[in-house]
Design a protein that fits this description.
Oligomer: single chain
Distance between the termini: 55 Å
Structural class: mainly alpha
Helix content: over 70%
Number of domains: 2
Strand order of the largest sheet: 1-2
Strand content: under 5%
Largest sheet: 2 strands, antiparallel
Radius of gyration: 20 Å
Amino acid sequence: MKLLFQVLARFSVAVLILGALFGSGYVGGWPFFVCIAAMTVIALYEYYSVLPTKNIYPSVRLGISCALALLVIAQLSEDLRRAVLRMEGAPLGLSDLNVINGALHMTLIVLLVCVAGTLIAQFRMSEGQSQVANAATTVFGVVYVGLMFSFALHMRYIDVPALMGQEHAHEFARRMGALAFVIAPVWLSDSAAFLAGNLLGKIKLAPIISPGKTLEGAIGGLLGAVAGALIIGIWLGMSPARAAALGVVMGTVGPLGDLGKSVLKRDLGIKDFGTIFGPHGGVLDRFDAILFNMPLIYWYFWFLVMASP
C-alpha cells in the first residue's frame, strides 16, 4: 500500500509539471520561454544554495544571469530560424546554418563572460574560501543547468511528424512531439525502475554512489524507456525499430544523469537539491535524466534533417 501511495504521488507531481510545461509549450514563443526560464532559475538556485555547506560560495547572480542569457540566445535563434524558414522554406540545418553559427558564437561569448566574471568576483572573497571551487562551481552550474535546459527551447521547434513524412499529424504532436518523446520515456523509465527496484531489487548497481539503485531496477527502467519511446514514437510516425533504438539510448543515458546527480548529492551530504515537489525533491531532482537526454535526441533529429535530401 505504501508503494502504491508513492507511485500515485509521483504521478500527481508529474501531472502538475507536465500541465505547466506542455500548456505553455503548446502556445510556444515567449510564454514557453518564461516557463523554462523559471525552471532553470529554480534548479540553478537549488544547486548554488547547497554549496555553502561545503564552504563553497559561487557567484549566484552572475551564474543565474549567464544561464538566462543562454536561454535568451536559444529563444532568439529559434525565432530568427523560423523567420528564415518562412522566407526560404528550407528545413532545419540547411538554409539557416548562419543562424545556428551565430547562436553558437553568442553562447561561447556568454560562457567566456561567465568564466572571466567569476574569476574577477574572487577578488573580494574572504580568506579561508577556495577561490578555485567558487569559480568552478559557478561555471559548472551555468553549463549543467542553463545550457542543458536551453535545449528544451530548441526541442520545442522540432516538427518530428514532418520529419517522418507525417505533415498532416495533429498540431499538438507537431508542436510538442519532440519534447514528449524525451520526457515520457525518461519518466516512465524512472517509474519502472522504482517499481522493479522495490519489488525485485537485490543486486546493488552502484552501492557507493547510490545504495538504493539495483540492477533489477535498471533493467526495469530500460524496458520502461523502450516502452515509452515506442508509444510516443509510433504516435509521431516513427518506425518501431527507430523508436525502440532511441528508447535504449534514453534508458541508458538517463540513469547516468541520475547517478551523476547522486555523486554531487553524496559529496554535498544532502538527500535532494530542493523541496518544491515535496518528497520528490526539487526541479533538478526531477529533470536530471531529461537534461542528459535532451541534447542527444535534439542532435539526432538535427543530423537526421542534415542527412535528408
